[in-house]
Amino acid sequence: MTFLFYIFAALAIVGGIGVVLNRNPVSSAFAMIVSFLGLAALYIQLDAYLVGTLQILVYAGAIMVLFLFIIMLLDIKSEEGRQFGVFSTAGAVVVAGGMLLIVAKVLKNFEAGEKALTPLKGAAAETTDVSAIGELLFTTYWFPVQVIGMLLLVATVGVVVLSKRELR
Amino acid sequence: MDWAFLAISTVKIIGLVFLTILPMVAYSVWAERRVSAAIQDRVGPNRVGWAGLLQPMADGLKFILKEDLTPGHVRKTYYWMAPALTMIPSLLTCAVLPFGSRLFGEKMVIADLDVGPLFVFAIASLSVYGIVLAGWASNSKYPFLGGVRSTSQMISYEISLGLSIVPLLMIFGTLNLGEIVQYQAQNGWTLLPLWGEGLSLKGMLLAIPMFISFVIFTTSIFAETNRLPFDLPECETELVAGYHTEYSSMKFALFFLGEYAAMIIGSGLAVTLFLGGWSLPFGWLAPESTTAEVPFWHGLVHIGVFFAKVIAFILFFIWIRWSLPRFRYDQLMRLGWVFFFEIAVINVLLTAGIMMLPLGK
Prior knowledge:
The complex is a heterodimer of chains A (168) and B (361).
Chain A: H1 2-21, H2 25-45, H3 49-74, H4 86-109, H5 123-126, H6 129-138, H7 142-164
Chain B: H1 3-39, H2 55-65, H3 76-93, E1 102-103, E2 106-107, H4 116-126, H5 128-137, H6 141-164, H7 166-172, H8 177-187, H9 201-224, H10 236-239, H11 249-274, H12 296-321, H13 329-356
Antiparallel strand pairs in B: 1-2
């Protein structure tokens, strides 16, 4: 099934390039959705069905819908035909080049990536990834889950306060 | 690569999607017109073929032969993509629906995933793009308003849709739709716990939150599929035809059929989760486990039972459409955010409380 990997990897990369190159915000958002779908397919190829499905459900199905909604509602057009200055271009090249160097260095020294993973044994092989993740979240990582929940609650209250300010 | 697996999957996909769901889509349009006629004491389309049964063919021919007009002011690429994007997600979701137990030793489901309901929600949440794009690409006021309405409506009701099935998953303890149906075949349907483990005090008590879940789920499906009483995105009296105002011929037909396909898949999911899927009541002809052998004619009966239930649910959809008036937009949003969201959360706690009661099995 290697050719499927190349198809979806290409899809994810082409989508990513599309986000940067498209000057129309709606086209950019759509390229991003394509990229997310490619990523989700890659997760599913790794047998991580839950992660792949959540990738589509949360990112492609909810967050990007909101993005598009806002872009269309505000009818943003200022991106089209904008010219870039010398400094912003140079800055972008430096940042992107640095990132590329880091990735290249990591990939060069990453020996574990060259070996195939050994299949799971025993109980871990028999449970589905949904129940495995659920069990870990509710036992080992229970405290971080609670903290994140608290953080989200604070953020929600903050949004309500900010959006209601002018009413008072 | 496993060629036998590929061949069997292809046969299943062709058999389910192209030979069953697509004809069902065409005939649910016919059923809609006939039932609405019966409800309003009219005759309805009864000229083409016996009782008008060939009407869908005539309609299809008409749609193909009509002029395919692309208005000059639209954004062409997205205008062309939108109809396909409404139809494809609806048809993709039927991959995880178990439409029968076993036939020739093969599971009657295209993809036996362990994340069934999540997969359905994930793909269904993509179907909003077709409508949003249609509204935006048409580049005129009414379609745009329809697209905006549809987006906010679908985002809002996705939340209560997802939360409403959490209590069910707590009881079943699995996200595999095949195992969910198997559990219901042996221990009573979610809404009819009258045999197996369901026939106990706890099973009866659990039927209360299950019924609440069912009401929220079904109402949210109506909102997700843009059906009356929640068809604000295309409501004729305010928005001409909403997001597909600028579309003609087969492109319009794709929107139209996409709505019915979504309705069929929604019915299929409701039947699978709440009404026992392919199983007969009281454990009749129920296989012992998901891996047990099923006699050939049992398999056929199970497939028949599933589609009978789905058709009954579609008729319920149609019946509601011609009985209830349309909601106002603020009422729709209020219902989703102020009532269903909270009730669904409380329902989760209620179910957990009942499951913790020391009542034995």
